[in-house]
Design brief:
This protein has 334 residues and is mainly α. It has helices at residues 3-30, 32-35, 39-49, 53-70, 72-81, 83-102, 109-139, 153-156, 159-183, 187-217, 221-242, 246-268, 292-319, 326-333, and strands spanning 271-273, 283-284. The protein has a two-stranded antiparallel sheet with strand order 1-2. Helix 1 (3-30) runs antiparallel to helix 4, helix 4 crosses helix 5 and helix 7 (109-139) crosses helix 12.
Length: 334
């Protein structure tokens, strides 16, 4: 296989891993106003992702590093043209990470509420903006002959981009509350399942509209297959959650997000940054990639280290697989 094609799909796989894993982190963060009735509930919610949230974010770091090394022209155009939304994502991730570490450092409720707000905002902003960014990448943006983005922030806030952002926001929120029902017991588990039923309906409607729009604009067998898998998995996840099968529901939500991201990359291929104003200015896997030698070195490095990363993460999830209850939090409080 051509190494440029291989690395396009490796980067797609890395973003799939990031959106599936950090997606439910974002959902848990956004669920605090709905599920955090008191301080104990909030600590239960945060503790469900406490051991894994930072590990999940490493997928973004690896994806960004691979994008820079394998497709430097794509990286340069993306990070310069989408500078403001990506900066907002970065700031949101920073305040979210800081809040996880600092909210328990002082006992005052005002102190905790301030960091709770940071967690909510730091989860919602990336959830929305990642969808906006990827929808615009697939749709295409204005580029000049030097592959420089010639639009502005409002160029990205178009109907397709906003619908993409709303889709990821609802998918991640639903993914997160399903994860809460999977990782908790008692009243908070029941409330999470009921919220997932309601948010799941919204997610189905919005995601179906976005995938249908993508399919009409970028029809191909791969896009059709990905959209169908995402749609079927999302509906099946909603049914599983309705029946109290949260483990099945969570797995199907993961498949939904993975298939949706795969659909977007299938719609994009073989371009990496289409030019909406002139197709001649588009970036493709051919004119955006590094040298063959660089890609060969990266391939051998990935072959050696990616299995170790995946294995370590799987081991971490296995170690912290038990459910968290209010009794656990109250026992540690005393």
């Amino acid at each position: 296989m051509d190494l440029t094609i291989l690395w396009f799909w490796i980067i797609a796989a890395l973003f799939i891993g990031y959106f599936v894993l950090d997606g439910f982190d974002f959902g848990v963060g956004m669920s605090i106003p709905f599920l955090g009735k008191d301080e104990t509930d909030k600590r239960v919610l945060i503790n469900t992702i406490g051991p894994v949230w930072d590990l999940n974010e490493t997928w973004l770091i690896v994806a960004g590093a691979c994008l820079f090394a394998a497709f430097p022209e794509w990286y340069a155009t993306l990070f310069s043209g989408f500078y403001l939304p990506l900066l907002l994502i970065l700031l949101a991730l920073i305040i979210r990470g800081v809040s996880f570490e600092y909210r328990h450092q002082r006992p005052e409720s005002s102190w905790k509420k301030r960091f709770d707000l940071f967690i909510i905002v730091g989860s919602a902003v990336p959830s929305f903006l990642w969808g906006v960014a990827f929808a615009n990448i697939v749709q295409g943006v204005p580029l000049d002959a030097g592959h420089n983005f010639t639009g502005n922030l409002f160029t990205l806030l178009n109907p397709f981009g906003l619908l993409g952002g709303l889709t990821t926001l609802l998918l991640f929120f639903t993914h997160g509350v399903v994860f809460v029902s999977l990782k908790t017991e008692g009243d908070i588990r029941d409330r999470a399942r009921k919220i997932a039923v309601r948010s799941g309906v919204l997610a189905i409607v919005v995601a179906a509209t976005f995938l249908a729009w993508t399919l009409i604009a970028h029809f191909s067998p791969g896009v059709l297959a990905g959209a169908l898998v995402a749609a079927v998995a999302l509906i099946a996840s909603w049914v599983a959650n309705l029946r109290g099968r949260e483990g099945v529901a969570f797995a199907l939500m993961a498949i939904t997000i993975a298939a949706a991201v795969l659909t977007l990359f299938s719609a994009l291929f073989p371009a990496v940054m289409p030019a909406s104003n002139d197709p001649a200015n588009s970036l493709t896997i051919a004119n955006a990639s590094s040298s063959q030698y660089t890609l060969e070195i990266m391939s051998w490095t990935a072959l050696a280290f990616l299995p170790l990363i995946v294995g370590y993460q799987a081991w971490t999830y296995w170690i912290f697989r038990k459910r968290i209850t209010r009794k656990h939090i109250e026992a540690h409080a005393h």
